User: Which sequence fits this backbone?
């Protein structure tokens, strides 16, 4: 699918003239600015042309192109709609249908887009862009009619993925905060223990050391006694 609006700038050639050419000067001025991509300035000139001749095909067609480039889909559609009864009868009918379909795509009016691209293809069967957009518009229309939504569904999936990522980030932040809290508690316990140890007097430390040594001697005596009894038991079993 290609959003590629035809930007042919109509110069009011003899084959395209339909009535008075009072808008010629404004259209040509707008064309020069359009080619420089000064779309807002070109829009002003095209609007002047339309004021002089509301049914100016060149003025309305080019005004639609300028508004499209400014992403004003509604305005572009209205400009093309203004000459819907005239433009299809001109030599630029295929381009008018194509641009109408492109605007309809942007507005998600897929039924109108399908119709417009079909008309463009009937006039220019070799237009690959029109064919690609026609297929895309039909697919989007089917999705819309079936309760799908095509691009809307894709946007929903992207939003869901984004929400999941945000939830995962929040969980990671919570875990990091919990780990920091645990580390702080551990550090505080170590500091408390160190402070408690620093408060013990030399006399208390000596008493604690003697108690530990006495406990170790008691344990060693118990182990020696158990080994002696085990050896004596094995000797009795051998004699028997």
Assistant:
């Amino acid at each position: 699918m290609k959003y590629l609006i035809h930007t042919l700038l109509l110069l009011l050639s003899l084959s395209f003239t339909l009535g008075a050419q009072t808008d010629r000067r404004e259209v040509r001025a707008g064309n020069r600015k359009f080619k420089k991509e000064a779309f807002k300035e070109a829009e002003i000139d095209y609007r002047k042309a339309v004021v002089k001749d509301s049914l100016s095909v060149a003025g309305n067609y080019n005004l639609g192109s300028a508004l499209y480039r400014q992403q004003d889909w509604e305005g572009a559609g209205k400009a093309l709609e203004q000459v819907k009864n005239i433009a299809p009868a001109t030599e630029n009918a295929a381009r008018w249908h194509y641009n109408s379909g492109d605007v309809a795509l942007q507005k998600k009016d897929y039924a109108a887009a399908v119709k417009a691209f079909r008309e463009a293809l009937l006039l220019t069967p070799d237009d690959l862009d029109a064919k690609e957009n026609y297929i895309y518009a039909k697919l989007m229309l089917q999705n819309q009619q079936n309760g799908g939504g095509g691009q809307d569904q894709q946007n929903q999936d992207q939003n869901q993925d984004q929400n999941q990522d945000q939830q995962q980030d929040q969980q990671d932040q919570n875990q990091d905060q919990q780990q920091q809290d645990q580390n702080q508690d551990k550090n505080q316990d170590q500091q408390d223990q160190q402070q408690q140890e620093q408060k013990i007097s030399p006399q208390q430390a000596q008493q604690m050391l003697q108690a530990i040594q006495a406990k170790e001697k008691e344990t060693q005596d118990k182990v020696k006694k158990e080994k002696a009894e085990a050896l004596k038991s094995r000797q009795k079993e051998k004699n028997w």
